Amino acid sequence: MSLDRLTAKATGSVRSPANGVSRRRFLQAGAAAGGGLMLSLSLPFADGVAEAADAEGFAPNAFVRIGGDGQIVLTMPYVEMGQGTYTSIPMLIAEELEVDLKQVRLEHAPPNEKLYANPLLGVQATGNSNAIRGAWKPLREAGATARTMLVSAAAKRWNVDPASCRAQSGEVLHAPTGRTIKYGELAADAARMPVPDTVVLKRPEDFKLIGTPAKRLDTPAKVNGTAVYGIDVRPPGVKIATLAQSPVFGGRVKSVDDAAAKAVKGVRQIVRLDDAVAVVADHMGAAKKGLAALVIEWDDGPHAKLSTQVVARELEKATLNPGAVAQTIGNIDKAMANAVAKVEAIYQVPFLAHATMEPMNCTIHVRKDGCEVWVGNQALARVQAAAAKTTGLPLDKVVVHNHLIGGGFGRRLESDGVTRAVQIAQHVDGPVKVVWTREEDIQHDMYRPYFFDRLSAGLDEKGMPVAWSNRFAGSSIIARWLPPGFNNGLDPDTTEGAIDLVYDLPNMHVEYLRVEPPGIPTAFWRSVGPSHNVFVTESFMDELAAAAKQDAVAYRLALLDKTPRAKAVLALAAEKAGWGQPLPERVGRGVSIQFAFSTYMAQIAEVEVSRDGAARVRRVVCAVDCGAVVNPDTVRAQIQSAIMFGTTAALYGEITLKDGRVEQTNFDTYQILRINEAPAIEVHIVQSREPPGGMGEAGTSAIVPAVANAIFAATGKRLRKLPVDATALKQPV
């Protein structure tokens, strides 16, 4: 189960216009400033929210404005962090409006949980690879509605039948006479037309934009340097601050000697908080020098002796007891008792940092009567709420400016950095930009949880699985981030990829135990639950194939008759990768298949393991069925990016603790895949008319087991704990 179902869990059942709610409740029109047409779009909410909005006069969720100059302005409820949202979502509007993509201009949506909540999450956030999934039908309907109203306005002006008119290239054409009129000239008239109860969406065979490789709208500004990320903003009079937080989570400041820091040229002031010290200066160089000159004595607090080993032991101990049942099929006990052979394994995945290229930063100006925030964040309403809570100001006194994000990966779904920046800014006269150093960013991240899994399976006389059991323990991010989504000891994120598998398993039982690590904050990390579960599931399935002495792809194909889309992507990936063809010594191919984020994906990795145990991913072949594709270039780019991200995690990713402290500090100790290590990547997209699936995260979870299984094929050594241990793979002399 994916996070798509959280709205129903958190606020009631989701309804859409297709389920009997009038389109008038979701689309309203009116005159925009300057005499244009403003189409207000509300994405489908849970019933209670929609009705509350009605009571207030139907507050919209997203806005499409058509000005007198014919330009379309889309107020974007999602954020751009490199995933291509600011191109693919405007394509939906442009397609149905019959305009060129370049005519659509974007504006950041302001924070407003009621107006801009993600329809699949129930909160204002960009995540879970669902921006396109959530916008697919509503935004197309918005474009089609605007088109219909423009055509009606033209027909009325010409006193002709609307059926004799059609929209094309930003204007309305009266086919019998050849008369045309541009949208800008019609916008004011269209604003006075009634909103149609129903609209006809374009058929896939008539698409002109959707499904074509559109050039990214945000690329030129990012290339010429005019794009503004959170870290780029410089309001007049801004000071720069950097900080040191307690090296142990939960620790406090005991004493500070700041004499040397104050003597650094450019340092303006030192701000001491309960658990952090900040240096405010004219520029980052001075702030860093001042920070290095501070002499801080810390009270490490209750977690001073915490280590990774302590966390792992607690998780291991927890899995000896029953957990919440996430899924059960058939009779696992009976099937296991009658099995011809049994396979058992324990898997572990480590804490992981986000390590975004743009480190955490936030610019704040706190005044007596208000607060202004400049930031790049995935959950804007939470930013506003955090600033309001910290300052004690009402929400309407907090203004938030959202900017492009230089890497989110779930880290910027959190507002801890905003809270910290506000705490510092409350001591500063004027605006202050708080920038975390790379060391601070890695050592005070909110980490992908550590998980511990116990698996067992029973095989029949042909080596096929007749029983599958998985019990795992780890943190639940949903329980903290969106408590209504955590029910009966379960949440849909933590279990995605462990349940509802693509395979036909007659007897299956999965349990989860929520165990929160002491003092260590956990958070969403690109592909989240599947990043753990798919590694475990696909590695263990590979173990079963090996135990049955069967080919890993053939073994899986035999279990996929009931999921033809999964079977098709696996067969395609195997064909394109040359599965079964001979490889050099200590080079192996590994496979994985998954259904995650409503997308079917198979990956085959080709990995070489040197005699000293170093693993290098040489080639990756990916076949994907993500339903209808809006921009195939974005799909390929997302998969390429996710494969790099996931390969990094498989080979190097690990956050460890000793004496309550994160041991990794920068990219020398928290290594990222280097450019010379990047594999050749092939992406094969299956054409489909199914609704779109998610794309931003799926590739991350799929690559990790493919790499691990390829290492087994190359060396005969099974990886049950990440990251790759080169020592264990070293060939004896």
TrEMBL record:
This is Isoquinoline 1-oxidoreductase, beta subunit. PANTHER family: ALDEHYDE DEHYDROGENASE. Residues 224-302 form the Aldehyde oxidase/xanthine dehydrogenase a/b hammerhead domain. GO terms for molecular function: oxidoreductase activity. It comes from the Bacteria. SMART domains: Ald_Xan_dh_C. It comes from Bradyrhizobium erythrophlei. PROSITE patterns: TAT (PS51318). InterPro entries: Ald_Oxase/Xan_DH_a/b, AldOxase/xan_DH_MoCoBD1, AldOxase/xan_DH_MoCoBD2, AldOxase/xan_DH_Mopterin-bd_sf, N-heterocyclic_Hydroxylase, OxRdtase_Mopterin-bd_su_IorB, TAT_signal, TAT_signal_bac_arc.
